Amino acid sequence: MLQWAQEHGEVGGVHASHRQLTAALRAEGCDVRYVDTGDPGRAVRAAPALWRRRTLHLFHITRLWRAMLLAPVFALVPGRTVLVLHSGSTAGQVRRMGGPAAGALRLALHAYDEVWAVNDEIRSVLPAGLRGRVRVVTPYVPVPRTAPAPARAPHALSVATNAGLAHYHADLAVDAVRLLRAGAWPDATLRVLAYGHDGAELAALRSSVAGEEWVDVTFDASPQEVRDVLASSAVFLRPTAWDGDSVIVREALAEGARVVAGDTSPRPLGVELSALSAADLAAAVSEGGRRSDGSGLAERSMLDAARAALDAVVARA
Predict the structure, then answer these.
(1) Mean pLDDT, 10 residues at a time, over the chain (317 residues)?
(2) Would residue 148 count as lying in a domain?
(3) Structural domain containing residue 118
(4) Sign of CA dihedral 121, 124, 126, 131
(5) CATH number at residue 166
(6) Nearest to 67 by CA among 95, 90, 34
(7) In what order do the strands lie in the sheet with 215-219?
(8) With contact defined as beta carbons under 8 Å apart, do 83 and 68 qualify?
(9) What is the Cα–Cα distance from 308 to 260, expressed in whole angstroms?
(10) What pLDDT does residue 142 have?
(11) Are 170 and 253 found together in one domain?
């Protein structure tokens, strides 16, 4: 199998997803290699592997223009090709396309044998003639623990943000914990797991919490450290304006943390929902929020979908 992804790219949900899938398939004896789309040199070195007939190609993206750009390549490579749409912004990208761009997207998507979307909304906005090849999957693949989980602190909270970008609303998490400390949870703490680009937005976030000993902002924590933070958190906050099917939300649930998330996107079963305000987030944390029924998301994992696609490759050989 060939994973078309930024193998050495930014830490985040897409990276975690394909890394988890690779680990699971390699544990089952599958030969998994990478076409590193984040590095032209490494991508070129992977070229000889592209022409093997018994190959499954998984192309992981968040931006649709990349699917359009590389469609001619995927139309030519032998084997089975799958486009994996990870981002909750995908539906918005489709809706913003004008007539020519929408036509180009419709043509480009025919280059892929399958399209895996991480929620029902993404499937619903793709061209009607292509929906038969669209599968909704969860991008989270469980990975067994190799070390004991740390103890859980009863009033420890955590939140993740990509570069401090506005739609992650890390500032709402900070304000919500500030309200908790002034009320029901005076000893509450917050760990901010930042990743991506360490630029102006993240600098502004750090500046806003300077001197607050109960907030710890870290950057590009390792997967094991992220896992331990989630395991030691009483509550993981996810006040995002949009999401696909957040890998870190599912990781937090798997580690036994409560998850309080914005009600603007589909959420996995059991996530507690909140409006996007600091007061509502704080109330959901201290009093409990309405629980998601999981609608709009899949329980079938990307690992199960990959196994089925690999079987199809073998059957066609």
Answers:
(1) 81 90 96 86 73 88 93 93 95 90 93 96 90 94 92 97 95 98 98 94 96 96 95 98 95 98 96 98 98 96 96 84
(2) no
(3) 2-140+301-316
(4) positive
(5) 3.40.50.2000
(6) 90
(7) 215-219, 189-195, 156-162, 235-238, 258-262, 272-274, 290-291
(8) no
(9) 33
(10) 94
(11) yes
